[in-house]
Amino acid sequence: MSFHKIAHYLHIDTFLLCTMTLLFLMGLFILYSAGNQSFILIEKQIMHILLAGFIMLLVAQVPPIVWQRWAPWIYGLSLAFLVAVLLMGHIGKGAQRWLSISGFRFQPAEFMKFAIPLLLAWYYNKIHLPLSFKSILISAAIIMVPVLLTAKQPDLGTAILLFAAGSAVLFFAGLSVRIMAGITLLLTTGMPLLWYVMHDYQRQRVLTFLNPERDPLGAGYHIIQSKIAIGSGGLFGKGWLTGTQSHLHFLPEHTTDFIFAVCSEEFGFMGNILLITLFMVIVMRGLYITVHAQDTFTRLLAGSITVTFFLSFFINIGMVTGILPVVGLPLPFISYGGSSLVTSLASFGMLMSIRTHRKLITT
Description:
By secondary structure, the chain is mostly helical. It has one domain (about 5-355). Helices cover about 70% and strands about 5% of the residues. The two termini are about 30 Å apart. The relative contact order is 0.15.
């Protein structure tokens, strides 16, 4: 049996799988160097990838119609977990983001990355489009409740992605440009008020974004060292395993949030182009699946998954290069970690299911 037939039988999109595999391989090379050539770190990351890949495979077997039926329950359970985090969540590094059940620790906000699009797509498929004022208000509640709960943990980076995931569904559902412009204007004018509800560390991040040199050995240290690493890479980089910023421990969080700076230093501008190209190939494939989806539910869900993935790596690269404030988001498929990887591949499992469970339409 050929690989193509096996992939078809397992409901795997071979184009997506091959591109993601290339990203994972590149990520392991970067992580090996960033982690000071630690085989233990690589072994753990490979285990994360295998677990996430197995979950993606399981999710891909489930037809979209089943996810449509389960959407309200998935959202409700994820929301209950978010509330539980605030009541009895595990506190680490000044934030209460984790929940531990029978020794298994996870981050419930990650589940909302696909729970919100699932429920919105289910809702719009049920009421039929176009959007009405009532449906927009209901959608806003579906989006903002988990966003506010996540921001309270505090986890501003994930809260931004949750808002983006929900907004993407609204965009693909046909929200008019006039309404989008009005919402953008309202959010822009309300930005000064946001300052008073921010945590102190979040205010410091905004001030550091505007002027990192104001505190070069404190709040501005991360982004200054990141820019040094990126700039020193030049066109072709210093070479694999020869970066100094991470190996000499000048660059903080070099295996997680700031791993893109390690890639820049060792592989240079050309390495960054290759990495971003692979990301964009996945995005284009996601948009292709979105365009060819056969009903409202699958089209909205596929579009949201694709846009959320794009914003995940765009925001990470933006904060590492200093064009966006630091919000603590990992680089998808590259940064060390398990929770974000599992939810990302589960989302791509849904994307593959949408692609491979297409019904034949006879004319």
